[in-house]
Specification:
alpha/beta; Rossmann fold; Cytidine Deaminase, domain 2; 3 domains; six-stranded mixed β-sheet; 18 helices; 21 strands; 37% helix
């Protein structure tokens, strides 16, 4: 295939950064430039020879500039497949010429939307139409939608390398820009002048309540509800003050944990998005009491989540303490009466249903987006390997499973110590694993717990034996961890020397 040649370019830009340099490079290689109103004037003022788009359309701009490039004289030239004889014949029959390069960026809607309630005149019509046409026809046309694209283009243009793959890349950026632009407009219409609506994995959201503020008072925040609503988006508040941004975050963390724990009544108490106590019990009340005993100091002002209905007995136990939020699938009428007497306590009824979360998790960085698969499920539970001489009892295996699930929901480095399906000490958010071991043991002792014969779960491997030694000194008998350290053999040797049973899950649930 012969090299791609650029003979004619259509230029219509709002952001004129780098435009003159681009235009001069094009004119220097005999490219004929056709520019719309302000773009043409800018180039002419800089001494760059250009022709108005009227020479292609044979029609003047009209409607205060709303109609400039929306005309077959331009669009036919952009959409024509140069390899198609019938297309070439159509152009010749109608006195039209093919266009090889489209340089367009849009009216600055995003900027205008910050200062105007509904910036109608900042909604670009012709620009996105031209860009979509050029991107669709990338086999015959190159398209530039941002001054940031100019340097790469000019480098390729200088060496005659504006080939098919390069044009496909430009088309990809162009379609993404059109999508972002349309999304910004749709969001503004949907939400008025409030915060932008998030969109992830093709899910639709509708605006919910405006929150007092975000994580801090200087941050604006709003709740957006996935359509159709489910989970926290469909929750029914049964009492108390309006929920805050941090309340929602902690409620989500608490429910995510208790729903992972299955059908047996379970309770999790969350503070600052990390569990400070979790337990399963014969009843919701028993689970709550056990979860609270793990760390009653940290639980003060926390968020409590249940995977089962809150009854009168549980409500009476809850009412004796200060919590921000209690969330559960339902509340018995008597329980509501008891808890609603605490005027500020927020009560949230959230249906127990499978969390309909998307398969991906995204985190915004400065200038980038990190995307990963969601950490779903516990396929490893039936495959845990006993890697030491000491063997676990059936009840110890059950406790190891419970603590392993809890550890997934604790910020790393996570060490969770407990027994009888309850946590006794949680070490989280430390820079070293041995510090998390010390913290878990310290918290358990501070709460008055005896760790003799207890079980510990670690969300990632032990890089050194010191963590195992600290846990063993405290009375831990069984440890479950993923394994995978270069020092696994040394760690297991120490476990054997100390009489520790160690289970290897061969799967990590690190939560950074």
């Amino acid at each position: 295939m012969s090299a791609f040649r650029i003979r004619r370019a259509v230029l219509s830009v709002t952001d004129k950064s780098g435009l003159v340099e681009l235009a001069r490079a094009l004119v220097g290689r005999d490219v004929q430039l056709f520019a719309s109103g302000g773009t043409a004037q800018h180039l002419q003022n800089a001494g760059v020879e250009t022709t108005g788009v009227e020479e292609l359309t044979h029609f003047p701009e009209m409607l205060d500039g709303r109609v400039k490039t929306l005309h077959p004289g331009i669009l036919a030239g952009v959409l024509a497949d140069k390899q198609n004889p019938a297309h070439r014949q159509d152009l010749e029959k109608n006195g039209l010429v093919p266009v090889d390069l489209v340089v367009v960026n849009f009216y600055a809607f995003e900027a205008a939307a910050k200062s105007e309630a509904l910036p109608i005149e900042a909604i670009d019509i012709g620009g996105p139409t031209l860009v979509r046409a050029a991107a669709k026809n990338f086999a015959s046309v190159a398209v530039l939608t941002s001054p940031l694209d100019y340097p790469d283009f000019l480098a390729a243009f200088a060496r005659d390398a504006v080939d098919l793959d390069f044009r496909r890349g430009l088309a990809t950026r162009a379609f993404a820009r059109v999508a972002d632009y349309d999304r910004a407009i749709a969001t503004h219409f949907l939400a008025g002048s409030g915060p932008a609506a998030p969109e992830l994995q093709g899910r639709r959201y509708a605006p919910g309540e405006a929150l007092r503020y975000g994580e801090n008072p200087h941050q604006q925040a709003k709740l957006w509800l996935e359509q159709p609503p489910w989970g926290l988006g469909a929750a029914k508040q049964r009492g108390g003050d309006a929920l805050s941004y941090n309340n929602y975050m902690d409620a989500d963390a608490a429910l995510d944990l208790v729903f992972d724990l299955g059908e047996r009544p379970a309770c999790a108490i969350v503070k600052h998005n990390t569990p400070c106590g979790a337990a399963q019990g014969a009843t919701a009340s028993a689970a709550f009491t056990a979860a609270l005993e793990c760390d009653p100091v940290s639980a003060f002002g926390g968020v409590v989540g249940f995977n089962t209905s809150v009854d009168a007995e549980t409500a009476s136990a809850l009412a004796s303490h200060f919590f921000e939020v209690v969330c559960a699938p339902s509340f018995a009428p008597v329980a509501l009466e008891i808890l609603q007497a605490k005027k500020r306590l927020r009560l949230l009824a959230v249906r127990r249903e499978p969390w309909n979360l998307g398969p991906l998790v995204a985190r915004e960085l400065h200038g980038a987006l990190l995307v990963q698969d969601r950490d779903h499920g516990f396929d490893e539970l039936g495959e845990m390997e006993v890697a030491t001489r000491a063997q676990p009892t059936p009840s110890e295996r059950e406790d190891a499973t419970f603590l392993w699930i809890v550890a997934k929901h604790v910020r790393s480095n996570a060490i969770v110590v407990g027994r009888e399906r309850r946590t006794l000490g949680i070490g989280a958010g430390q820079m070293s694993r041995v510090d998390s071991c010390d913290l878990a043991v310290s918290k358990a002792r501070h709460a008055g717990h005896d760790l003799s014969g207890s079980i510990a779960a670690s969300d990632a491997f032990f890089p050194f034996p010191d963590g195992v030694e600290r846990l063993a000194e405290a009375g831990v008998r069984v440890i479950v961890q993923p394994g995978g350290s270069k020092r696994d053999a040394e760690v297991l040797s120490v476990a054997d020397r100390l009489g520790i049973c160690m289970l290897l899950a061969r799967r990590r649930h690190f939560r950074h």
